[in-house]
Amino acid sequence: MAAIQFRVRLVAAEGPILEEILDATYAIWSEGLTRDNYARWNAAQMRTAWGKDHLRRFALVDDRGRWVASAKRYLLPMRLDGVDGVMCGLGAVFTRREERGRGYAGEIINQLIDRSRGEGATVAGLFSEIGEELYRRLGFVTVPMDEVDIEVDRKHGAPAMLVRSGEERDLPALASMHTKRTEGVPLRFALRRDPALIEYALSKKRLLAGLGFGPGPRGARQTEFFVAEEGASAAAYVVLTVSAGGWTLEEAGDRDPAGARLGAILQVLLAREPSRPAPLIRAWWPRLMPVPPQLRLTNRIPARDIFMLRPIENVRIPDRADDVFYWRSDYF
């Protein structure tokens, strides 16, 4: 690896620099959007109530005023070993093509971690699409998580339960369900998901589906959010991404310790088209999340998107899937 040739400084990626970065990264992370809609999707995420305070894109700029690397930085509230803290989430790490092999990816990661330490972060995290080796050299450790297929019992038809579309007023109930599942249990790491963070995760997926609507398999992608009520509030819910390839269960919750209402929601949704074969349903299913009696988890494998953490302060990194509670919805 060649040494860094020029001094570099960390700046917010804005204006012409941001446009160049979007041009360079469009082919990798556009998710089937047009170039204009890729820019709109990124900008809209940062304008959400949660994103405007917790999400920024940065660039490394050299002495010539030229950007050489970029990354998104998220400040995510989390709990590690019973202590509330902040995770510096790192996403879309990218080095300008002609500058690769000079260590700029590691430099921007290290500078963002140093910056986040001053903002209260005790751990840094990322999802790797390029394997583990590069990030291991930078001090990251792989955190195991599971990916599963979900089979839903359809033998007895749909239960007599009202399922409706989720709304903004349901978000506090969703946050409460998550807190109940992740506090006071033998669990080492989980996000602290408040209504604003849940709304951000939903908005990100809805924006992607809306901006990408059109011909082609990705243009048929939809985000569906359903709840079952008890009284006047949500008692169980699911968030799904529906596409030509099947369903992805992005997140779910149930006030019922056994999860029976969650299972019933999925039965109701499948009963909308009773004559069609059940779609393939995939999920990251946290091991401490109860499996509803109507569901069966099969084909368990390590999650294909590799989750890695690096300590910033004196903390221990979880090393078992049993220790982590994390939904696909919070991928960054």
Structure, described:
The protein is of the alpha+beta class and 332 residues long. It folds into two domains: 8-142, Gcn5-related N-acetyltransferase (GNAT) (Aminopeptidase); 146-303, Aminopeptidase (3-Layer(aba) Sandwich). It has helices at residues 15-29, 35-47, 51-54, 104-117, 133-137, 171-182, 195-211, 260-270, and strands at 8-12, 55-62, 67-80, 83-95, 121-128, 141-142, 146-152, 163-165, 189-191, 222-230, 233-243, 246-254, 281-283, 295-302, 306-311, 324-325. Strands 1, 2, 3, 4, 5, 6, 9, 15 and 16 form a nine-stranded mixed sheet that branches. A seven-stranded mixed sheet has the order 8-10-11-12-13-7-14. β11 and β12 form a beta hairpin. The longest helix is centred in the middle third of the chain and has 17 residues, at 195-211. The radius of gyration is 21 Å and the shape is globular.
Point out poorly predicted stretches: none
Oligomeric state of this protein? single chain
On the 0 to 100 scale, the average pLDDT is 94
CATH topology of the largest domain: Aminopeptidase
Would you count the extended β strands for me? 16
| Whole-angstrom Rg | 21 Å
Q: How many individual domains?
A: 2
> Treating each run of at least 4 consecutive H or I residues as one helix, how many helices?
8
CATH class of the largest domain reads Alpha Beta
The CATH superfamily of the largest domain appears as Gcn5-related N-acetyltransferase (GNAT)
Largest sheet: 9 strands, mixed
Kindly report how far apart the N and C termini lie. Answer: 28 Å
Structural shape: globular
**Structural class of the secondary structure composition?**
alpha+beta
Strand percentage: 25-35%
Question: What would CATH call the architecture of the largest domain?
Answer: 3-Layer(aba) Sandwich
Helix content: 25-40%
Along the chain, the helix and strand elements come as EHHHEEEHEHEEEHEHEEEHEEEE
